[in-house]
Amino acid sequence: MRRLGVAALVMMALSPALADAGVARLWAVNDGEKIEQDDLGSPYVLDLRGMNKTWDGHTARLFGARNEILAFQVMVESDGKGIQALSVALPELRQRGGKVRIVYAPPGADPSQSAGRPIQIFAVHYLNVTETSHADWVWKPGSPAAPRDTTGWKPVQLVPENARGGRGGLPLRVEGSRNQSLWIEVYTPRDLPAGLYDGVVTVTADGRATRLPVELQVFDFTLPDTNSLDAMVYYEPSEPELYHGRNLDPAYHRFAHRYRIELVHAYDETAVGARRGRFDGSDFRPAAGYEGPGEGVGNRMVPRSFYGTPPAWDVRDEAWRLADSWMTFLRGAVPSAKTFLYMPDEPARSEFERIRTLASNVHSNPGPGKALPIFVTKHWVPELDEAIDIWCAGPQSFDIDRAKKEHARGRSYWTYNGGRPNGPAIVIDAPATEARAIAWAAFKHDIDVYFYWHGVHWQHNRQKQGERKQNVWVDPITFDNRGQPNKTDHGYINGDGVLLYPGEEKVHPQEDRGIAGPVASVQLANLRRGLQDHLYLTLARQLRLTAEVDAALGAVVPRVFSDAGEGVGFAETGDQYEAARLALARAIAGASKPAGAR
Known about the structure:
With about 600 residues, the protein is an alpha/beta fold.
């Protein structure tokens, strides 16, 4: 087929009426690309370089399994005069040749209420990154591992369509010569028949509309509700309480569940008992307003302590009593729980003696408390060899051979956070797919839990000098230890520790979106994509599709952790992940068919 020029293909979708309404271009792209607000020459506009399989100049195409959340971006580029009122709609996706429909319903005040809402619409909010992240543990500035494009107006928050006017709610005002991403999510229910589904996205600018066809291919298999890779993200309830002016913990946990992550902190028996629905799954059922992945499945990450261990555990008799009580309680209350006692965080050698004491106090227990694992955020060191049950190493210090040896000894070896080139860096000024890459790396090297150090790091920790109540809707830097007298590694990072944003803003009321709950980020959406990809890889392995799994891993994560070189050895564009996922989907669907089926 003859390839048309860029302008001709764009105009295939752009009606004359819309062209007169301040729209210069209209196109679509997958959810794994960050198209900056001022990047008007993006190579993703068309698939002329094999970079955008979602868009052919006419139709946006999606594919997936049942029980999966898929997303794509409708990109609107304004002309020099701009757009005063921009909105988008996708009323339904209808089964081709059938009667089944995936139907849109408008959002309510609580963004975590997803029952009856398989189609959701968001407007991307952009942050102006003027300073490249500067911290050796993320990447060394100027090194081959550093991302290529780190400054500019970066897409960050996914603001629900019903947000306050002027603060991301539809319709939007778009300044002249700017991109605006309209983000559309589609959940494919468990009972959805396989096949093709058709819909039409209507984009309206200043009262004039145009229509973009959408095609969804649903493969004949279903993603499990239980994750094959657990993702725990630290959650500090005081942060939402400060910024929202009230406690919204149920909404935050329900919202996180739809993204297949668990928000975690320290628990004891009383805390678990008071939040029983979070662990038995009743908080994640339609009766509680929840529909989507993990419906009816409870959380299973239940740490006994977090970011350190209270002094009571230093006394052996008290440690035995606490551990016995906890492990006995969990066996009845949360039988599938993954629990641990968190040692001093990223410990220095001066803390090793206390860690050995704490570990001995637990391991010497003759009762059920002996089974409580000892967890440390550090790579393996011989001084702690007999003390630790769960090692959790960052990508920069993750030794693949050592992890295999620890697995063989019955110990766990997890990973946390990120850092190039050994692993991805989940920050604003790195590619969108960084968060997706971590799940592929975890699958390749048999890691069963990923830990991210904070999800709502809005009020900066005490490493920061001066005002700590940050305006995270304006300032992209969320980690900053510049000015610390005892620090030699004066770092600052864009978006570090922030996967969720406050939908209400009582600290900076001019930024209040009027959303009674959390707002997601591009990073969080891509983390979910990675967790879903992990399920694809797991299903393929269970079906003995060894060649297909190896090919996918070779294409996406050929070199990670201690295999890494000076430059990044994992995929950095959404299309690379989508190509691997499509090959896996076809193989899984083919292998899942009963004998004799066509």
